[in-house]
Design goal:
about 230 residues; alpha+beta; Cathepsin B, Chain A; 7-stranded antiparallel beta sheet; two-stranded antiparallel ribbon; globular
């Protein structure tokens, strides 16, 4: 089955693009902020959370997107080592949510050290619940994946037909289908991971497939922000 979540366009661009920013450090290391912006746009447009995007979510201009990116930069902007841990993304995104007055969501980082089966099950169940998945890849031995190294991007689709499992990766204003096994098996010690986004009311905030496999003492979300 192939599942694709809706997204948004800025002109001819499929989502935002960190290369638009005139600031050099945003072009180099703004991927975390841009991924968070794209996630906020999705939640504003499709999950009735308009407070997350301070402009018109139905008519997204490049100028408005750049202004939004500069707001998000305060929470998830470039830094010396980049946003190289999923918990750093979770903390920054939660801080942004706290300032908007939007209703809470639950966030959980899944380590790249987890089994591939856990990763695919979590991504599937997260998207089946209607939420895209912010993904972090650090090192990778595959030279064809150089654009994704030490990089945050958004997953907004999966395809598990034919016995495989592919994900739709969104970054630099484009999308590309990638085999999750290829993406997950980095061959490097530093692996990254991804962040699950769930409604605040979801039981424990953990997809069933993940909760069955992760020990209960590590399967807890941090408490969500409650305005």
């Amino acid at each position: 089955m192939r599942k694709e979540l809706p997204h948004f366009s800025v002109g001819q661009s499929y989502g935002g693009n960190q290369e638009w920013f005139p600031e050099r450090w945003m072009r180099i290391g703004g991927c975390g902020a841009v991924t968070a912006c794209d996630l906020c746009m999705y939640l504003a447009k499709y999950k009735a959370m308009p407070a997350l995007y301070p402009f018109d979510a139905n008519r997204v201009s490049r100028e408005d997107y750049l202004a939004f990116g500069r707001i998000m930069r305060v929470y998830l902007g470039p830094r010396l080592l980049g946003i190289h841990k999923t918990q750093t993304f979770v903390d920054g995104f939660r801080d942004y949510l706290a300032g908007t007055g939007a209703r809470p969501v639950r966030l959980r980082g899944i380590s790249g050290e987890e089994d591939e089966e856990i990763a695919s099950a979590a991504i599937r169940e997260g998207m089946d619940s209607g939420f895209p998945v912010p993904y972090l890849m650090l090192r990778h031995r595959d030279e064809e994946l150089q654009d994704y190294i030490w990089h945050w991007f958004l997953l907004n689709g999966y395809d598990d037909s034919g016995g495989g499992f592919s994900v739709k990766a969104v970054t630099y204003g484009e999308s590309r289908w990638l085999d999750l096994r290829r993406l997950w098996r980095t061959g490097r010690r530093k692996k990254g991971g991804f962040v699950l986004v769930r409604p605040a009311g979801a039981e424990d905030g953990v997809p069933n497939a993940v909760a069955r496999r992760i020990p209960s003492d590590s399967a807890r979300f941090p408490e969500p922000y409650s305005p």
